[in-house]
Amino acid sequence: MRAASHLLGRDPLGPLANAGGPMSRTRTERVRSSLLGRDAGWIRCPSVIRLGLDFGDRDPLDTLRGLLDAEGALTAEDLRPRFPLPGRALICRPLAGDAARLSLDEAEPPDVLRQALLLGLCTAHRFDPERPVLWTRASVTRALELFDPEGFYA
Amino acid sequence: MPASAARARKSRAARSPVPARLPPLGVFGFDRLEPVILAALVTEDPLLLIGQSGTGKTYLLNTLSEALELEHRHYNASLIAFDDLVGFPYPEQESGTVRFLETPATVWQAESVLIDEVSRCKPEHQNRLFALVHERRVQGIALPRLRYRWAAMNPCSADQDGDETYTGSEALDPALADRFALFVRALDWDGLSGEERRRVADPGGEGRVAEDGGALRRRVTAWRERFLELVETCPPLIVGYATAAVGALNDAGVRVSPRRARLLARSLLAATIVAERADEPLFRLVLEASLPHATWGATVGAEVVAAAHRLAWDTASQAPDRWIHAFLAEPKLPKKLALLLDECRDPDAGSQAVAQLLAAEPPERAGAFAFASYPAAAMGRLPVGADGVNDLAALAGPMLSVDGEIRWQERRNQQNTRHPQFERLAEASGRLRGARRERARQFFSWCLVEKMDPVDPVALEAEIHACVQLLKRRGLA
C-alpha cells in the first residue's frame, strides 16, 4: 500500500503519521436573509414606520398622561382623529436595543403622542388599527418596526 | 360543472383512502378492518382475533411481527406450560435469588407475544396470561421490552352457530377479555370478495418472510409519535364519542366497563391517525371492534350498537369545535388550512387549533404552517384570535428575518465546503422561480439556522406553496 501511494506521488508517511491536530475543523458562516423591508425583488414587504420612545428617567405612563392633559384629550382613544393611522394591520418586528428612539427631551409633544398612539395599537407582533388603544408600561416602551405583509403573497 | 358536484368531487379526492398496508405483506381479507388492526399497532394495547379455523388469524399476527421486525414469541395456550414462558428456574447462590434460564422461547426478551388458542387455556394459565396481557409482567417481573400482546381464538362454545363446532374453545373470563382493547373478527370464505379468494388460494409466497422494506415499521413509528403527542390532549370529538357510546350501551343493558371507555378513546384516536380521517363510518367500525362480549359468548344486538353509535356521534359531532380533531389529524398542511378556513367559526377555537397544531407537528412542519399563514393571520384574514396570531408570530416572526450562524465540520484535506444541508435545501428551491423561490429560500435559511432537517424539503416547500395559493384563491392574500 505504501509502495502504491509512493508511485502515485504522495508522501507515503503522510496519512499514517499522527500530525497531532484534529482531522477536521469547524466552519462558521453567517446567514442573513429577510423578506421584510425590501424594496426590490418579487416579495416586497416595505417598512412603514419605526416606533420607539425614549422616556429617560421619567415614568412612561405618567408622562403620557401629562401630555394628554396638555393636549386637552381625556384618553388615548381621543387621539385617533388627530393623527392619520395606517389603514390595515401590519407586522411588527422588535428593533435592536441600540436603535434610535424619539427622545422626550427633544421631540415635540404631538410627535410623542402620535408614536404613543401607534404603540398602543401594537402587540409585540402586530399592529391592529381596529383594536383599542392600550397604554401599558410594556406597550409604550417597545421599539418596533412595522411592515406591510401584503407583498408576502406575491 | 355545478358547484355542488365540484365540491363532492373535491371531497372524495380529499378523502381518498390511504394505501392498504396489509395486502403488500400477503395478508388478505382484512381490508375493512385494517384501520382497527393498525390502530392496535399504534396504541400498543392488546388485540384479540376471533375466527373460524383457517381464516388467517395466526398468519396475520405472525406476519405483522415480521414486518415490524419484532422479537416475537408465539405460544399455544392449550399446550403451554409455565416453564415455556419463563425458562427453567435455578437458584443463584451469590444473591440468594432464583433466576430463569432463558431459551429462544422464553418471554423475557420478547417485543411481541401471540397467545394462540387463548380460549383453550387451563384456568390456572389464564391467570398468568392475565398478568402478561394486562400488566406486561410474568411472575410479578416486568417485561420492559414487550410492546405487543396479541391473542387469537376460535369462537367460544356459546358463540357458535355454524357447521363447525369448536369443542374446548371456552368462554374467556370477562376480566381477561376486558384487558383487550380491540377484537377483530376474521372473515370466513363467505365473507371474502372474489379477488380476496383468489389471492388467499394462490400458494405463491408460502413460507416467505413478510418484508416490505420497512415501510410498515416506519409508518407505525411515525403514527405512534403522533399518537403520543395527541393523546395528552385527546380531542373533544373522541372523548365525547367514547363517553356517549359507553353510556348509551350501559343504558341499553350492555355492560361496558369504565376502562373500556378509555380504551375506546385511545383506539379511536389511533384509528383517525392511521386512516387520516375522523368520519362516522370509522368511529362505528372502531366501536364495533371494541366490544368484548363475543369472547364470553354473549351477543350484542347490531341494532343496539347502531343506536349507541348514532347517539354518540350526534352528541359528539354537534360540539362546535369538533372540526379541530379533523384539523389535527389531517396530515397535509394546505388541507389543514382549508379546514381552518371552512370550519372554524370562533376565533378562540381557531387559536386553540393553531396552538395544538404548533405543539403537535414536527418543528419544521409547524414552522412551514406558521410561515405560510402568519402574514394573512396578522392582516386579520384568518379565523384566529389574538392568541393564535401571537402563537404564529412567535414562530414565523424570526423566519421572515433570519440572522444567525451555521456551523459544520470540514475535513482538513477539504476546502470551501458548504454546510451539509445546504446543497439539499438549495436544490429544493433552485428549481423554483419568482416569489415562490424567494419564500422557499427564506424558509430554508431559517431551517439551516435553526438546525432543522426536513425529511423531504421539496414536498414541504410544495405544501407551503399550496397554502399560499389557497389563500390567494380565497382572496385572503
Q: Name the largest protein-protein interface in this structure.
A: A-B, 36 and 41 residues
Helices and strands of chain A, in order, run as HEEHEEHEHE
Largest sheet of chain A: 5 strands, mixed
Quantity of strands of chain A, as a count: 6
- What proportion of the residues of chain B is helical, as a percent range? 40-55%
Q: Give the fraction of residues assigned to helices of chain A.
A: 10-25%
Note the run of SSEs of chain B as H and E: HHEHEHEEEHEEEHEHHHHHHHHHHHEHHH
Radius of gyration of chain B: 26 Å
Overview of the structural elements:
By secondary structure, chain A is an alpha+beta fold. Chain A has a domain of 101 residues. Helix content of chain A is 22%, strand content 21%. Chain A is built from four helices and six strands, in the order H-E-E-H-E-E-H-E-H-E. In chain A, strands 4-2-6-3-5 form a five-stranded mixed sheet, covered by helices on one side. In chain A, helix 2 crosses helix 3. The longest helix of chain A has 12 residues. By secondary structure, chain B is α/β, with parallel strands linked by helices. In chain B, the strands form three sheets. Chain B has a five-stranded parallel sheet. Chain B has a two-stranded antiparallel sheet with strand order 3-4. The longest helix of chain B is centred in the middle third of the chain and has 18 residues. At the A-B interface, strand 1 and strand 3 of A face helix 16, helix 17, strand 10, helix 19 and helix 20 of B. Strand 1 of chain A pairs antiparallel with strand 10 of chain B, so a sheet runs across the interface.
